[in-house]
Known about the structure:
- The structure holds 2 protein chains of 2 kinds.
- Chain A is α+β, with helices and mostly antiparallel strands.
- In chain A, about 25% of the residues lie in helices and about 45% in strands.
- Chain B is mainly β.
- In chain B, about 0% of the residues lie in helices and about 60% in strands.
- Chain B is built from no helices and 6 strands.
- Chain B has strands at about 15, 20-25, 30, 35-40, 45-60, 65-75.
- A 6-stranded antiparallel beta sheet of chain B has the order 1-2-6-5-4-3, with no helix packed on it.
- The interface of A and B includes residues 28 and 32 of A.
Amino acid sequence: MYLLWGFFRWILGYAIIEIRGVYGEAFLSLCMKREIDLWEIRRVCPGIIRVKLYSFALSRLDVLARKCGVTVEVRGRFGLWETLKRYRLRPGIFLGVFLYFALMLILPRFVWSVEIPNADPVREREIRSVLLNSGFGVGSYVPSTDFRELKYDLLLARDDLVFAAITMQGARAVVDVRFASDAPDLTDRTPCNIVASRDGQIVSVLVREGIRYVAKGQTVQKGDLLVGGIMDTRLGYYVVHSKAEILARVTDVSSQTVPLEQVRCERTGRVFVRRVWSFFGKEFSLSFRKDCPFESFDTVTETKCLSLGDRADVPILLTEIRYYQTEPISVSYTAEEALEMARNSLNEVDRVRLNGIEIESEYETVTHANRSVTLTKTRSLIVDICEDKEFYFDDKGQ
Amino acid sequence: MKQYPQQSPIPPMELLGNSRIRVDLCDGILEYEPETVKLRAGKRLIRINGIDLDLCNLSESTVVVRGTVSSVEFEG
């Protein structure tokens, strides 16, 4: 209650005055009779009483002070009204406050950001594209958006979606989607054989459907028939979709050549920075020059999103594009350095290429020729070499 | 504001522990010192003694005294 009164007094504006004279009590009594509210009355020293009262009552004090033979000195004026009076000659402040409240009213009616929490980056981009085609994105006007229609657009455009819901959380649109899991392909009954996808030696054979034509330990070449899809019986023949898992030992060769003398682009140290403000998807360049002044350069782009706290993203993006000038420099490597570079490069590529494949053995060969180093890795891998190969019948059934 | 009979000989008072005293139907302040506050209510005089007294609120006919009240005396 006391806080409420304090806030009320701050809104109306109050003043602190000092009553000087021996008849301070008489002055207070007279104020009571004239219904002038006083509070926090304190005698600061003999002959001086400090009092708070509403600012609008100050004009009535002169007459009372003369009657009581005291002097009244205003020590300060406080409160909202007094603050507004103090800044009345600065229209920019009032304009700023007005703009603040206007923007606070208007901006939440637009979408500031779109979040798709349950989608991987690729699907997220595709869903955003579908939403944009339906006219929904950052900067869309929320009251005129038909979310039900938008949801149906999304479900119709994407076959892999089983559920979609778009909810607004403040100015943030959250698109909740659920994807259908891929059903196992049990319906493929296309007649087919299984042939070898590469040369190798059979390590294990597991045939689920069809007639096996190879055995463990046998050597096969690419294209050899492994499992047949034509089942020949005494009553005739019928065809099946062959299924098998045939592992084979295969030889894998990969190589990487690194020249001992290379031309590399190095940064010279000169940088051109271009900044772009993005507001509701509209871009405003802060640099006069839009193209890069360097002939050869590499770029680093950094985008910062303004946010209020952890969850509220303001639809203002600051993109900073840094153009680093580069120039070609000739670099010479020793054979050891080149070999190490080739090994690193090869490992980097093979880590992705041979992910999940069993490597039985491997060895390296290094050749030096034409001012370059070539690293060749020969591996023995155990892989599934099955490859479906459909077959067709002519009109005669052959 | 609370309504009291016009002819009440003793002004209504509320004492909150010994830290705050509220006096209604008060006509004026005769003396105000940090140790003493003397009020007039009709024909009666009320003296509030204590330590570090100040007038918390002063409206048309109500006085609220805050501080450590040690005694209240009536005269008249």
